[in-house]
Design a protein that fits this description.
single chain; mainly beta; disordered N terminus
């Protein structure tokens, strides 16, 4: 889902109300993606690996729902880079084999696009009690691809 589609859909229903919200509360005018009401934050890592200036370009966050029995990941760009992204991506791997090595039977879901300006995802996977690894990436302008995620690509968050 891109923000353009979100804005277009909302504008078609209540264009005047959207303009009032944007001008009254700019921080709330930027939807950042959501996994759903039952999801709770498990971990977040900065998108800064590969950044020439050492800055964090955003975060990649893992959520889990005890009722949906799934995990969810979203990559979000930092406010300074909103609208300036050339590519935004998120991925979530699930260790179904329980061997902490990616192989046959394990699953992965991903979402990315050059059209995403604020967030990528959410991506979902059934993962109760299974280890996951997740990552995100962003490119701002002609800069390098900046990444972040589970440290060293390790399997973690096994609850």
């Amino acid at each position: 889902m891109t923000i353009r589609r979100w804005v277009a859909g909302v504008a078609g229903v209540a264009g005047a109300a959207v303009l009032a919200v944007v001008s009254a509360t700019p921080a709330q005018a930027f939807p950042q993606g959501s996994c759903g009401q039952s999801y709770r934050k498990v971990a977040a890592y900065p998108l800064k690996t590969g950044a020439k200036d050492g800055a964090s370009y955003g975060t990649v966050t893992l959520y889990q729902s005890p009722t949906a029995h799934r995990k969810c990941a979203i990559a979000r760009v930092s406010g300074a880079y909103v609208g300036r992204t050339k590519y935004l991506y998120v991925e979530l791997f699930v260790d179904r084999n329980r061997d902490r090595a990616y192989g046959r039977g394990d699953t992965a879901v991903a979402d990315g696009s050059e059209k995403y300006k604020w967030f990528a995802g959410p991506v979902y996977a059934p993962a109760d009690g299974l280890c996951v690894r997740f990552a995100g990436a962003v490119r701002v302008g002609s800069g390098p691809l900046v990444r972040g995620g589970t440290p060293d690509g390790a399997w973690a968050h096994c609850a």
